[in-house]
Each structure stands twice: as structure tokens, then as C-alpha cells.
Amino acid sequence: MHLIQMDSVQRWMEDLKLMTDCECMCILQSKPISIEKDEENELILSSQYSTCDNLQLLLKRAWIISTEFTRIAQKLEKNRWQRVHSMTVRVNCHVRSMINEHSMFTRNSSEEMHQFEKLLIDKCSEFTAFTERCIQTEDEQVLKSMKSCINATLTTVAQYFAQLIELILTNEAQNLLRQIELSDNVYITESALSSLFSLTQEGAHLCRIIAKEGGVAVLFKICRQDCFRCLYPQMLRTLASICCVEEGMHQLEKVDGILCLADILTDSSHSEATRAEAAAVVAQITSPHLTFTQHLSSFLENMEEIVTALVKLCQEASSGEVFLLASAALANITFFDTVACEMLLQLNATKILLAACSDKQIVDTPYSRDQVVTILANMSVLDQCASEIIQGNGVQLLLEMLFEKSSSGNSAEVAACERVQQKSAVTLARLSRDPEVADAAVKLSCIPRLIKLCRSPTERNNSDSVLVACLAALRRLAVMSPDGLEESDFQQLVKPRLVDSFLLCTNMEESFV
């Protein structure tokens, strides 16, 4: 996925390394420089690159070949026979180069692998021969009849190619997991873990492969051995990546992973880094964006221990990153189960979170404030929460969050700022059913800020969700303090139906006078 997100010029430069004179490269790579010293050459080559580097090269080559398949299909549709043939030759060379490169860096390939490689090479040769015949004839009827054969061959080549890549990646995942499981050497295990983590960063498909090959069980086996304590953070980071897919979550449940995470979080002898990474795994498996968390029954059994440990981690966090991971886990848990909000109240979490927000070294980004205000918004459905907010000067914090702005202009940060504004308005609306909170909000001039956010699209970054939340909060405060609004604001933002006020504000042209 990172290839797709790369700058286009940079991606072209990367691809150029693999695409220049690929026909010549293919011929050269097919011939050993020295027959007698072939093994020595293989050793030199393999020592220059790590498993991670080799897989990166393979994935780049695979991406190029997949792109070429798409382009061939497009040219074939337009009957551009000359282009189809030249691109087919190029794909043929890329496939051979990829297989040769993989063979140089892989020892003891399976018989199944060799069979797939042979099948693919044979089919590529057949494909090239087909397209060559097409450029040697001008008979439209012949070309029309051959077109369906070429389409079928292209589909078969693409399928064989996808199966070979799947087999290679599965084989690499198996090798790495075997190294991790069998090694009692910290350095070898660390190297294999690093390569495995790099694999997980290549997308959900690779995470599924690792999960299916028993990756979650292998990682938890490491996590239960004290001799590998120094590798726990790295192991947990890898585990969090694998658990972004359903197969990883199922494996986690099967090996009692939740219980292991709870043990790590509650054991103060573990380093803060280890507990923070365990919190990151909890945040991942309880993400409200995932649709496959319902089966985590064991999480509910250990939830009280986990929530208590996470609140303590927030309170004792020595850095913004640790606080972010712990608070993100808590925020997700408040969506995951409503009982968590009651637990947080009993643990004085409101006071701890509000205190953390006053420390700019700990809550130092919109992302951290997003987690805090998410927790407050979910807790605000409880009547007891209002007094906690008042005591912790929480209304002032919510007002400050209504002014949240991105300092970098980065799209992710801008989106986080929008969420902070929206959720702070939602929290105000919910809490303002309590007269004491509503009175504090009015005295702190929350109403003028809410009006500004409704009337000025740039203040809310043209966000409709922020607008709806602000209109709801404004209407709740207007009931408690009708004198706080001017007549025009009342007539346009409070009196009409919510949808009418929304349409009025979204069509409003901002005055720059």
C-alpha cells in the first residue's frame, strides 16, 4: 500500500531501477558468472540483503507486473496489437527476472514452488507467442477470433502469478515464524521479528497470511518467556498489526491472548514501553471501526483489570506517545461496552484525564485530545459525570477544544481537529441537561463560540458533523439561558427545525468585511 501513497516522481524513480533494460537483465541473470564458484556467489548476494530487503524487491516487482497486466488488458480492448505484444514481452522478462531474483535469495525452495514457477514461465511464453502471431497478420477476422484466446491466456497468467506470489509470501512468513519459534537467541529472534513486522506493514493481505500460519500463537509464546522480555514491545507492536484482520482476532481469542495482555498491563515489573504496546494491541482489537470484535467474550471477563491498568498508565505516562496509546484503548473500550464508563467513574478517570490535559508535555497533539474528549463524550451519558466535570474545570477544557486548530495543515491532523470540535460540542450538549454545567458554559462564553462555529464555515473547516453538534449544543444552552442569544441568532439557529438551521448555515456565505 505504501507504493500507492508514494509521491509519483519518487515512485517512477523507484520503478525505473527495475524496468531499465529488463530484457538484457533477464538474460544476464539466467547465466551464472562462474560455474565453479556458483555457491560462493550465492552466499555473497544473500549476505548483502536481508529478508526484508528481498521481499521489498519482490513486492515492487510484483506491483509493476500487476500494473502491466492491467495496461495490457486496456490496450487489448482497443486492439493496439503492437503495444500488446511489446508489453507482453516486457512482462515475460519481468516475471523471469522476479523468479531468478527470488531463486538467488531463497534456498531449498519447495517442489510446489518450482512447479508454479515453471507453469508461470510456460504460460508467459505461450502468451508472448500468441501476441507475436497477432502482429504478423492483418486479417480482422483472425484477430477477432484470437482476441478471446489472448484474454483467456492473460487471465490464466495473472492467476498463476497471483498464486506464485501468495506461495512465496506464505513461505517467507513460515520461515520467519519458524525462526522465532525455534530460536533461543535474542538477536536472531529480534532480526526475525523485525522482518515479520515489516511484512505486516505491507497490507492486510500479508497480515492474513501470517495469522493463518499461526503467527499470533508464535508471538504469544515469546511473550510468555521471561528471557525475551526485551523483545516484548517489538512483539506486541507486530501483534497489533496482525490483529487488524479478522483472522488475527480469531487467533488471539483461541490462544487466550486477552488474558496475556491483561497480565502484562497489570504487572508493574514490565517496562512502560511494554505496557504501552500492550495498550496499543487493546486499542486495535476494540476499535469501533472493526466489525468483528463481538466474539471477544474473554475481553469482557478481563475488562475491569484492563481498564484499571489503562487508567493507571494514563496517570503515570512519561510521554505523549504512552498517554495516546493508553487513552486510545480506553476511548475504544467506552464504545465497546457501556459498563466501562461506570468503571471509569469509580476509578476517578475524569479527574486524571482532565489533569493530564493541563500538561502540554503529555497531551501534546490533537490526536491525544481526540481520545480524551471521546472518553468524556461517552461518559457524559451518565448523570454522575456532570459533577466530576465541574470539579475538574472540564467545561473550560471543552471550550478550549472548540477552538482546536491544526498547526501543520496535515489532512490527518485537520480531521483530528474536526473530531475534537465535534465531540466537545456533543459533550457540552449532553452535560448541559445539568443546570450547573449549563450555567458554567454560559458564564465561560461558550454560546458565542458555538454561534461562530455555526456561522463561519472556515472555523469548522467546512465540517457538517461539527455544525450539527454545535447546533445541538447551542439549542440545549438556549433552553437554559435564552437571554444569552441575540434575536437574529435565536430566529436562525434555535427556533427553526434543526435541518432548516443546518441548511441555512451550510449555504451561508462568510463575510470578510
Summarize the structure.
The chain has 513 residues and is an all-alpha fold.
What report would you give on this structure?
InterPro entries: ARM-like (IPR011989), ARM-type_fold (IPR016024), Armadillo (IPR000225), Insc_C (IPR045789), INSC_LBD (IPR031938), INSC_LBD_sf (IPR038205), Inscuteable (IPR039921). One of its GO terms (molecular function) is cytoskeletal anchor activity. By secondary structure, this protein is mainly alpha-helical. Among the domains are: 51-169, Four Helix Bundle (Hemerythrin (Met), subunit A); 393-512, no CATH class. It is built from 28 helices and no strands. It has helices at 2-5, 8-19, 22-29, 38-48, 51-77, 81-105, 111-135, 140-182, 186-200, 204-212, 215-223, 232-242, 246-254, 257-266, 272-285, 297-316, 320-336, 339-346, 349-357, 366-379, 385-391, 394-401, 411-431, 435-443, 446-455, 464-480, 487-494, 498-506. α7 packs antiparallel against α8, α15 runs parallel beside α17 and α22 crosses α23. The longest helix has 43 residues, at 140-182. The model is unreliable at 20-49 (pLDDT under 50).
What average pLDDT do the residues reach?
A: 84
What is the CA-atom radius of gyration, in angstroms?
30 Å
Number of strand segments: 0
How far is the N terminus from the C terminus? 46 Å
Specify the helix fraction band: over 70%
Order of SSEs: HHHHHHHHHHHHHHHHHHHHHHHHHHHH
* Largest sheet composition: none
Q: Poorly predicted ranges (pLDDT <50, ≥5 residues)?
A: 20-49
Strand content: under 5%
Inertia-based shape:
flat
Number of discrete helical segments:
28
- Secondary-structure-derived class: mainly alpha
